[in-house]
Inverse folding.
């Protein structure tokens, strides 16, 4: 039974929402979701998935396999739903940017590519 | 906002799509007949370019633009007009006499475009006259 | 109170600068030279359209606190989002190449050095500004320079105003110098160069960077009307100048330098250099806006950190995308295509893609979830749909015509 105070969110609301960490950094968007079938509660959302492979999968499953071949899950991130502290068009996450792999890509690019350009360092 | 696309809707879109497509094809074909031929296009554009070159040269000597400005403009005219002779030969099959006449004027005019006289040490008026003759001839060819 | 007035002034100045760019200069110049005043009507239609659009996008971002790109991704999903994104990247990379080319040509007109040589340096200069510059610098710098556009109006006055025999061309364009295909091509190009979607992405992101709220709506409306209105005057002034000076000389303004002749006639060397200055300032401003607009679109759509007021390493993916996009435009420009012709072509392609770029926007503008009570009025919706359909149909007809009859 739904408590009248519960807000109802559909999968459509959660997909493509902005992910915001506790230190105020935008790390990406929800590309996909994982759900479990539980005998008592039906279908339960368990994980949010972000990363290029999941995004590719939204277009075509073969494309996702191709991306997996190149990226080998390095940039994929499965975030448990328990990490979400606030729901809405922006999902607020419990951790800081460095706690999530998908939040690392800005840092990775800064350290490996931008450092060669004057002014590119943090 | 999910849109349920019913089968009837798909058919409707397909039919209207075909209609619009045919209508557009008709418009394009109609447009082709009332618009100028490629030959008239080429001669018209070349005529305008020679006219612009002529005015640029005159203005430079009248002190209305700097030599740098004129030099830069002529470089652009050069890239615009180079190769027009080839295009004319390819397109002007129906008007061989006109093409010959135009080519005769094109060659000296292009020499001016390639090396315009921007100082007082050379004869810019003759150059200007060459450009003017070429411009007039090309524009007339485009209007017939 | 004073801050509000400064804000309005800056917004107007930006809008004036934003209206003119390589595309609108190219289209206005050719329009006047080829058809006299015969295309003034479409410039006015395009002006109304862009005023409506700018007001809408400002209203949208101020009330919903979302930028346009964010809203498309969140409301329509990732797969649909790829469509306007793809059309933007294709069209704007060509337009950016044309803008950079415009700056290069302006410098070439000053120095006499070939624009092909200057082109990569211009690209580097633009990159340095977006790499290190703040949003305020980018928004206001070129805009202030762009006020030089007002010299076009002075030019018309100095030439004695619009001659009486030119007035009938308002409703009966002269076709001696241009063909029907040219006319349609210019209609599409004028619409595409004025109603450029990059303006929406840029304006929307700017409104977020400046933290606009629902209280800013009046400011937004004033900026849109006055700013775009003044900008349109610059475009019309150039068209009229071209009609007065170039058409009688049989010059059809197919290169940017030729347009300077229209200012050289009344003002001599100063006039020609004023034109080159306008070209420099407006194309530079537009180049910065186009690069930022596309980068904003991508960063916001993918949910990355973005913003000009952040250091490059803080928004690494955003800055990397900016750099790559600039390199793509440089590659296009190095093919040597004349910037004026490229600007016309890019504008027509933009016109063709307008339904893809803008229909999500129209849908969002009517969504109370984002706008509460501030959704569009019926008149605005109808006007926009008509203009979109017009732009699309004209572009669809004129592009094949131009190619078949060997123009462009």
């Amino acid at each position: 039974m739904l408590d009248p105070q519960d807000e109802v969110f559909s999968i459509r609301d959660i997909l493509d929402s902005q992910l915001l960490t506790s230190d105020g950094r935008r790390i990406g968007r929800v590309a996909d979701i994982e759900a479990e079938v539980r005998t008592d509660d039906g279908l339960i959302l368990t994980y949010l998935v972000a990363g290029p492979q999941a995004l590719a999968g939204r277009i075509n499953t073969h494309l996702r396999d191709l991306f997996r071949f190149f990226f080998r899950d390095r940039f994929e991130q499965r975030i448990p739903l328990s990490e979400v502290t606030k729901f809405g068009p922006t999902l607020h996450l419990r951790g800081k940017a460095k706690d999530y792999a998908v939040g690392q890509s800005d840092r990775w690019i800064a350290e490996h590519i931008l450092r060669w350009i004057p002014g590119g360092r943090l | 906002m999910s849109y349920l696309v019913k089968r009837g809707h798909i058919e409707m879109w397909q039919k209207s799509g075909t209609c619009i497509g045919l209508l557009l094809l008709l418009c394009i074909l109609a447009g082709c007949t009332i618009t100028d031929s490629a030959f008239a296009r080429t001669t018209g554009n070349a005529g305008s370019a020679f006219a612009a070159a002529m005015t640029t040269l005159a203005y430079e000597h009248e002190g209305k633009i700097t030599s740098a400005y004129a030099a830069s403009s002529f470089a652009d005219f050069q890239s615009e007009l180079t190769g027009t002779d080839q295009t004319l030969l390819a397109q002007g099959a129906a008007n061989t006499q006109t093409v010959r006449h135009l080519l005769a004027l094109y060659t000296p005019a292009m020499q001016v475009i390639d090396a315009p006289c921007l100082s007082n040490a050379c004869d810019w008026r003759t150059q200007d006259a060459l450009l003017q003759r070429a411009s007039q001839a090309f524009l007339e060819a485009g209007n017939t | 109170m004073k801050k509000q007035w400064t804000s309005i002034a800056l917004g107007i100045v930006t809008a004036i600068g934003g209206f003119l760019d390589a595309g609108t200069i190219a289209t206005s110049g050719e329009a006047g030279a080829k058809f006299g005043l015969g295309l003034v009507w479409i410039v006015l239609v395009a002006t109304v359209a862009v005023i409506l659009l700018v007001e809408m996008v400002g209203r949208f971002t101020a009330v919903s606190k979302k930028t346009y790109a964010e809203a498309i991704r969140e409301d329509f999903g990732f797969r649909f989002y790829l469509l306007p994104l793809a059309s933007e990247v294709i069209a704007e990379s060509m337009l950016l190449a044309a803008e950079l080319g415009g700056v290069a040509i302006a410098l070439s007109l000053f120095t006499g050095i070939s624009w092909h040589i200057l082109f990569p340096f211009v690209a580097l200069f633009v990159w340095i500004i977006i790499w290190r510059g703040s949003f305020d610098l980018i928004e206001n710098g070129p805009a202030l320079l762009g006020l030089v556009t007002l010299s076009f109006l002075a030019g018309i006055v100095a030439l004695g105003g619009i001659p009486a025999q030119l007035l009938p061309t308002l409703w009966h364009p002269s076709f001696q110098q241009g063909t029907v295909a040219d006319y349609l091509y210019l209609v599409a190009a004028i619409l595409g160069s004025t109603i450029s979607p990059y303006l929406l992405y840029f304006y929307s992101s700017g409104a977020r960077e400046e933290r606009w709220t629902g209280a800013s709506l009046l400011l937004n409306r004033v900026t849109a009307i006055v700013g775009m209105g003044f900008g349109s005057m610059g475009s019309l002034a150039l068209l009229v100048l071209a009609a007065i000076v170039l058409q009688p000389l049989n010059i059809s303004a197919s290169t940017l330098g030729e347009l300077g002749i229209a200012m050289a006639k009344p003002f001599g060397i100063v006039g020609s250099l004023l034109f080159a200055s306008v070209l420099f300032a407006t194309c530079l401003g537009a180049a910065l806006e186009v690069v930022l607009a596309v980068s904003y679109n991508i960063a916001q759509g993918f949910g990355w950190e973005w913003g000009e007021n952040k250091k490059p390493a803080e928004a690494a993916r955003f800055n990397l995308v900016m750099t790559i996009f600039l390199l793509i435009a440089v590659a296009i420009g190095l093919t040597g295509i004349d910037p004026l012709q490229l600007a016309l072509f890019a504008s027509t392609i933009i016109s063709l893609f307008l339904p893809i770029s803008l229909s999500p926007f129209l849908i969002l503008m009517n969504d109370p979830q984002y706008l509460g009570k501030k959704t569009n009025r019926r008149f605005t919706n109808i006007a926009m749909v008509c203009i979109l359909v017009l732009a699309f149909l004209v572009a669809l007809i004129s592009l094949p015509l131009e190619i078949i009859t060997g123009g462009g």
